[in-house]
Amino acid sequence: HLRQRDPQRAETLVREVSPVLEQLPDNARRRAVARFTLIAGERMWLEAQLDAASSLAGRALAEFEALDDACGRADAHWLNAWIAADRGDAAAGDAQLSVAAAHARTAGDPVRTDVIDAAAALSAVFCDLNKANQAWGQRFDPQAEGQHPAATGWMVDFLGTAAFQAADYGRAATLLTRAFHAAMDSGQLRRATSLATNIGNAFTGLNAQHAALEWMQRGLDLARPTGWPMCIGMGLMQSAETLRRLGQREAAANLLGEGLAGLAPMPNSRAYAIAVEYQGDLALD
Fold first, then answer.
1. pTM
2. DSSP conformation class of 21
3. Using alpha carbons only, how large is the chain's radius of gyration in Å?
């Protein structure tokens, strides 16, 4: 639960419990070690060390396979999906999500199933809004009783992003704000930083540039202490775009340059492509 909220503390807890692992039955010990490997892999992903992250996810997956741990397999494929996304391989990411969802269903885990399905739906929105709505529009009920905030956040993110893609910016801002708070409540800090900038984009769509800038700054303030290149790069480039729209071109150029430098380890990612697009818009101005 602390792996994104406080990665250093999470690592400390792993070190503290490691000496006790030898006292556990063999399967329990192996399962714990695989979990710790996955936590380490997620940290590598967040730090944009994608090859190392992929290697650790592979090790964890192999152990979960050997233990026939369906939840573990789902989580390993989940991590692989986001590694693929940051590499710019959307097809591989979608395939990993599909496999992860199948394992979550095998495990009978409704929270994982809802989260993974909502992430797949969110990915589909960026490809084809109409198809995504047909395939997933009736799948989710964020108002259902007892809904876990992790699942609610992803469901509402899908609905809000679909509204944004349909240019319904007011509804998008409302839904994405709800998703932001759910992400914060469930410790999904990378999601929260991304959602903050997406809320800013919704306000940009409403031509409320100062409200947009406030949300961009909020996302950047969350991102900077993490040191995570994707989070910081996205926060910088989105803030730069808002400043460009406000006519503050020099400040926009400085932030955009810093953002592109931060995203350099992920040159095939969607975020890097958008940053280059923003650079072109700024050059036109």
1. 0.94
2. G
3. 19
